[in-house]
Amino acid sequence: MPKLKTRKSVAKRFKITGTGKVMHHRSGKSHILTKKSAKRKRRLSKPKVLKGSQAKMIKRMLPYS
Question: Taking 90 as the threshold, does the pLDDT of residue 33 lie above it?
Answer without folding.
Answer: yes
